[in-house]
Design a protein that fits this description.
single chain, mainly alpha, Zinc Finger, Delta Prime, domain 3, 2 domains, 3-stranded antiparallel beta sheet, 7 helices, 3 strands, 63% helix, 5% strand
């Protein structure tokens, strides 16, 4: 039997089996120590990209680019592309590099080249976190707030402009 696991932040999504192991997010085959290390590396990867440290991000991507954690790496790289770069060119490039890495094999020279290229690309690209910021705003608004400015913003967003009806 599997029960749904609550996800918070960088812990990843998945489900807990009766044995307490996470299943469904690519980390189920890893030991506890490996899961902790992978979690730390995923966090470092995103922080390095956000801070524009492409070479450090590339090193972490290289570390995660192997048979055991390649899928986890590419899932995270695609998430980072959308969360932090918000540019169709970057999102599509990272997605295609991920497909190529899977084709070559995550642990091969070519697979690792794809991972390193994606990390450098995102590390050097300008950052844009508006999509996450908007989702966080909507989350606060839906839970309820006393903030009059936020309430006014939500009312304005909910209006259907006249030109939509044309």
């Amino acid at each position: 039997m599997i029960k749904k696991m609550e996800s918070s932040g960088n812990s990843g999504t998945g489900q807990l089996g009766l044995d307490g192991k996470v299943v469904g997010n690519g980390m189920e085959s890893l030991s506890r120590e490996e899961r902790e290390e992978v979690g730390l590396l995923k966090s470092a990867l995103q922080k390095y990209v956000r801070r524009g440290l492409g070479e450090r991000a590339a090193y972490v991507a290289y570390q995660l680019s192997n048979k055991k954690t390649g899928w986890i790496l590419w899932r995270r790289l695609n998430i980072i592309a959308v969360e932090d770069c918000l540019d169709a060119t970057v999102v599509l490039a990272v997605s295609e590099l991920g497909r190529q890495a899977m084709k070559y094999g995550y642990e091969t020279w070519d697979g690792r080249r794809c991972a390193v290229a994606a990390a450098i690309l995102m590390g050097e690209f300008r950052k844009d976190r508006r999509s996450d910021e908007f989702l966080e705003l909507m989350d606060v608004a839906e839970r309820g707030t006393d903030d009059e400015e936020l309430k006014a913003k939500m009312e304005d967003l909910a209006k259907i402009e006249d030109y939509v009806h044309d």
